[in-house]
Fold this sequence. Notes:
alpha/beta; D-Maltodextrin-Binding Protein, domain 2; Arc Repressor Mutant, subunit A
Amino acid sequence: xxxxxxxxxxxxxxxxxxxxxxxxxxxxxxxxxxxxxxxxxxxxxxxxxxxxxxxxxxxxxxxxxxxxxxxxxxxxxxxxxxxxxxxxxxxxxxxxxxxxxxxxxxxxxxxxxxxxxxxxxxxxxxxxxxxxxxxxxxxxxxxxxxxxxxxxxxxxxxxxxxxxxxxxxxxxxxxxxxxxxxxxxxxxxxxxxxxxxxxxxxxxxxxxxxxxxxxxxxxxxxxxxxxxxxxxxxxxxxxxxxxxxxxxxxxxxxxxxxxxxxxxxxxxxxxxxxxxxxxxxxxxxxxxxxxx
Length: 292
């Protein structure tokens, strides 16, 4: 009688992390381990199953045909494991997380939902706001963790990488030099808004705010062709284009994405590490395309 291979939880988790992030480095960050350890676990899983699950080249990491078949079953396997562990524990945990509005991309709800599936005993309360109010709430103990832009007078926290900014507009947006530049801007006290206004003032470009709102509302106004906006390159809507060169707009300085946390229990920190890994990207694909 042929013995069926036994799946190893850590190896399956490594495979799923690589599949989700399409990167061995980001997968290792999410699991709090090293790239070498991730590779060893994947190789062990592939040997047990007798199939190549991940295809890897110097520039690309992707699922093999067998990996794509195995993906959903592997995710269900890991979720069942985590639910079983949670069922044996009456401990329910929660933490309050703040994310700067201009950094909360469309991937954030998906990541939070996935964390909830993996660990139903964990509740994450999310607050979106500008970086400064979030840091104040963190310092006052109202939030256990924040993902925010770096403040000039603050050097603590974990650096998750740079945030690059650009001027974005709908392809058909038109502006004639000499006329006030029509801007869609985030609410006052937003770091991105302040950077954009200061850059325009330094170069003596007249401007007029024609739309002020929250993150998604500003992006919708830009996509609709109502105005130009200063946005993080990785979050700019796909139907917009970078127009710095076209309109001779000033270069916007990069910032840093910082994580501040007071979490101490292992499982909450693991969940936060998974979220942080999504932001740990040194140069977004869109930024590379714009500057390359």
